[in-house]
Amino acid sequence: MNGLFYLPPDGQLRVRKEYRTLTDTERNDFHRALVLLKRDRTILPNKYDALASLHHLNTAAGAHGGPNFPGWHRVYLVLIENALREKVPNVTLPYWDNTLDANLPDPRLSITWSPLFLGSSTGVVRTGPFAGWNTPYGALRRNVGSDRRLMSSTDLGLIMSRRWLWEITNPSASDQYNIELLHNHVHVYVGEQMSRIESASYDPAFLPITHLSTAYGKNLGKDNDREALTLEEIILVL
């Protein structure tokens, strides 16, 4: 993985957009980079799966269930983003503001699960850029909306009202402020591979979901306004 484990030069900004606000070109480039990683067999079984395997209980024991949850995942997403940029320069990871979907009469019908974005919401993924993907846990599958729930605007407001990391992370956070607990609800909401730690990262839906949760952690203690996270763009210095 030559060139994978590096950070960009000091002062270089990467602009993060909500997944659905990407231009057609930006969205297609993001999808194309993921597909190219999946096809790259210079590392077996392929470079995408090799990266996904890092998100596993055996290799990431400190990534879950404690205050390292936001930080570990931020570094992990940088590694994945750098790999994507080796395939398609200037690609950046989008985030999925699922609080917007939570306000829909039926979030399962969100454009997020259309062929233009993440593809099939139920059963084997047969539409969209990741149609036909296989994982070490079988064909890529989803069962959106069968269990748990998305994050709400109320959840977001509660998280952003806290000042200290211990107030929003395990083991000390109360449930209503616990960013990892609320994040986990979304994983289970998507279902199938996404519902389990060891298999979640093999679904590309993992990337925008996890990016939003780690952004909450980074912006902790800033103005308690939705604008801090859900305007058209989030700008993070990595």
From TrEMBL:
A GO MF label: tyrosinase activity
Q: Which UniProt keywords apply?
A: Copper, Metal-binding, Oxidoreductase
* Top EC class, one word: oxidoreductase
Q: Which SUPFAM superfamilies match?
A: Di-copper centre-containing domain (SSF48056)
Q: Which domain of life is it from?
A: Eukaryota
Q: What is its EC number?
A: 1.14.18.1
In this protein, which residues make up the domain named Tyrosinase copper-binding? 64-81
Give the protein name, as stated in the record: TYR
